[in-house]
Amino acid sequence: MAAAVAATTSSDINSMSTSSTKRSAVPSLSFFKDWTYVPAPESSDHIHLKDQYGLFINGEFVRPHSKRYFDTINPATEKKIAEIADADEKDVDAAVTAAANASAKIWKRMPGKERSKYIYRIARMIQERAREFAVIETMDGGKPIRESRDVDVPLAANHFFYYAGWADKLDYAFPNRRPQPLGVAGQIIPWNFPLLMAAWKIAPALACGNTVVLKPAETTSLTALKLAEIIQESGLPAGVVNIVTGFGKTGAAIVNHPGVNKVAFTGSTDVGKIIQKAIAGTGKKATLELGGKAANIVFDDAPIDQAVEGIVNGIFFNQGHVCCAGSRLLVQEGVAEIVIRKLKDRMETLIVGDPMDKNTDIGAINSKEQLKKINEYISIGVNEGAELYQSSCTLPSKGFFCKPTLFLNTSQSHRLVQEEIFGPVLAVQTFRTVEEAIEKANNIPYGLSAGIWTDKGSKIFNMTSKMRAGVVWANTYNKFDPTSPFGGYKESGYGREGGLHGLLPYVQW
Amino acid sequence: MPRVEVLKTYKIAIGGQLPRTESGRYYPLTGKNGTPLANVSLSSRKDLRNAVVAARSACGGWSGRAAFNRGQILYRIAEMMEGRKAQFIDELMLQGSSRAAAEKEVTMSIDRLVYYSGWCDKYQQSFGTVNPVASSHFNFSVPEPTGVVAIVAPEESGLLGLVSVVAPCIAGGNTCVVLASEQRPLSSITFAEVLATSDVPGGVVNILTGTTKELLSHFASHMDVNALVYCRHDAAEKMSIVQLGAGNVKRTMVWEKDWTKDEQENPYLLLELQEIKTTWHPIENIGASGAKY
User: Fold this and answer.
1) All domains of chain A in start order, with CATH
2) How high is the ipTM of this complex?
3) What is the pLDDT of residues A79-89, one digit of tens each?
4) Among partner residues B135, B240, B276, which is closest to A496 by beta-carbon distance?
5) Nearest alpha-carbon partner for A102 in A209, A258, A226
6) Residues of A in contact with B276 (CB under 8 A)
């Protein structure tokens, strides 16, 4: 959000107001009248896409046994981009068989030192084709090009680079143990960070000597398939990574396949629970990275302008399609008024629109279904009696878009506060004491992440240790790194991805 | 006239108290030659729920204690057991063990407590990390207790099995609700008496006696239990705990181990009942270019 941030901080934000009466009295900047941004679209001329994609099984792109294909569309334009194969049980079986063969015959036996070099190759090839990946990610998923270019793609490459180095050093990760691979990992990933999630899943699995059957989400298969092309080019032995596309049924076929030794799933808590039930009694290991409803807690001694940026980044990053999004704002009463005023002002400056435009802060909602779900929650919020505020931006006439939204006067029992929306909708609550903030923050079934904003160090460590959440950001939000473990407490799932701790779910002894 | 023996009533342990089961029901336990040993509480779902409430309320205090202090308390449990060694040996023999086996089981149990006492303030250093993130942030990961842990203790090893599972659980700052061995339950209640005199805060270890048939589904489906450790061998039970546990994404694990083996005491068991928390904080960059060593 660099352009808009710079503009905001260079103005006197205190004098800004959304109310038109105040606006005439106090000079302020109107970003849509006085400052207009010239469109700065990223070019898509250089990308290579096929009209139709098969399944990547045993090192080859093959036609699906089902003979069925479905369309993947650009959610910002609703135009079809390509056709994607819909894998059935036979296809999944072929992929698992290929993975099991590759595991037994090659990958499990290959010295870590050699395995690592393949993973390094993949990392490098993603870096070389970074821009193409970023553009396709934005076209297929709707996220702003700035985010796919600066966050998703570099992090994905770095993830492979980081885990590549672990492949021959696993004995040092687990003292007094000789870690061995599990076998075939069945991995199912969501649509919010398609390439990055593929990297989070594949890189540690390969480093630990496992082979992979990965299913991307049906609305965002393209970058995983482009990754399959890289994997093919990299010379990685056939069958070590297999990518099968499709819907929930395809995912279920992976989870239930007897040849799968490990299930890694990122997605909703509802589906996570179904998976946990499905693998009962099978001996399959699981990593579940599920939903969240993070509290972003602002104390009265917080650096307010930084906190407002953090709140905006927390909930509007990637259209709020983030499991660790700071979707609940808990603000201490003494500063509630000023924080909310500044937050509303800041929301006015957010540019919602063409994801391919480098000025865009908030892109397209990933799918029609998701937009419908978000709008349902907005109605629920209104019906529950919360006070709705949306920025006054205009939305494009085509595509799936949602205005940055916040709800004031919400209470702990509201569905808006308890349930994951997965969209740019922020529920605001206030609190008086530290105890109340802790109580409210933890009083939900989720426990993925939390944010703390205060200038007092001792308060930071009190709060971070009291949060029942796997990732806690203090005076920052939504930061990710391959060396940093990520994952939840409670109903946000179990197991960690990233860092040394991300190796544990892929080994046994 | 010979003296009439005073028979011990074996109760259960909830929240630092040793109450009778609210069910008002018992099952008779008999010794080798069929002589009655004791009436053992058939704990009910309500007992379980009370125990979970006690465990939950003890959670904050226990996990918030200095790790060093937790280590001292575990060591104190070992001290108290050492003092009542003879009683534990007698009790195991009553329940069918030979003297040699009983002595071995008791001494191993004591040593196991000493072993985990030492881990209380060390596993954080073995399993915690400072993560070298690429951005200007200080980032570290530490293990934290999962919370309330339900334990279905090993059936064949009434004391050593129980201690081998409870010790890593509470060493890691968790609190627990334990279902004791059904056929060898007496040591578990005597162990609860030891705990009550070992500075272990009430509610940290709650021990119920009874049957898996009556209680297992409630252990597995309770929404305020964070993890379930199952230490028995029934395939159908193993499957059902995972299915029922999914209701609140419970961490369910099966620990089927030979607890008489030394390798079954290790910090990786402790780690299975930990969550990893990662904390980020920005590092100011101003002046960095002028820094000198």
Assistant:
1) 2-36+292-474 (3.40.309.10), 55-290+489-508 (3.40.605.10)
2) 0.94
3) 999 999 999 99
4) B276
5) A209
6) 470, 485, 487, 496, 501
